[in-house]
Amino acid sequence: MSTWGRSATPRCWLSTARTRFPTRRPLNVTWSVAMPSALAEVVPPPLEADMTTEGVVDWAHFGRDGVAANMDRKAQPSHKAVSELEVLGGGGLRAYLNNPVLFSWSDGEPTPAESGQGSGVYTAGGTGHGFSLSVDLPASGSGSSALQQCFVTRVYVGVYKSRGRMTVKGAGLSFVDTSLDDSSGTEDGVYTITTCSSSPATLTLEWVMDKNSGDGNITFQAVTVATTSTTPTAAVLAYALATTS
Length: 245
What we know:
Helices cover 6% and strands 51% of the residues. The protein is mostly beta strands.
């Protein structure tokens, strides 16, 4: 079961190998950016997360009130983007109530409103145990009227005495990350995925245990999807400036 511990250090991935920027260099440099179509980063989690505000397109929360079977989601979304959560590896699904992030919402079903939900689900066992989920991102039109639409998908996860491996494919991205790693305690993070496309796209996510340091587990708490005016290019430039001194 997850307990409070260290939080994630921001890390960044791009969908194009041609994008480059210096780090730990003076700011009077020339940037060379290849207009990426997708960007993913893992950042420390907030203390509170409002699903209604953050998940304008769609959202889902897992494990309400410490019951593993409970899945709450946005009521009557204009586009149902978040799939059901699938358990991988046969480790079984369990719930917990001491999550460091407190979730709230006011447009959910089957529970219309909640506040202070420090809950989530977890699975234990050996390497390969974990979760799978997909996010279907809609187009902003059809045929010649389709315009580029940008979305931000946030995935709330954590590890306890283990290392997690996040795999994201689709919508211009293909990467594997194992940066959430704590052999003695807990580390939580939010994978933030920014994508832009004029066509429908599907993100496929797998969050599995990559290493077990004893009685470890990995957690899955929530997913939110929203439109955004921040393109991957703008996001990577902001990230580069923030990590440059």
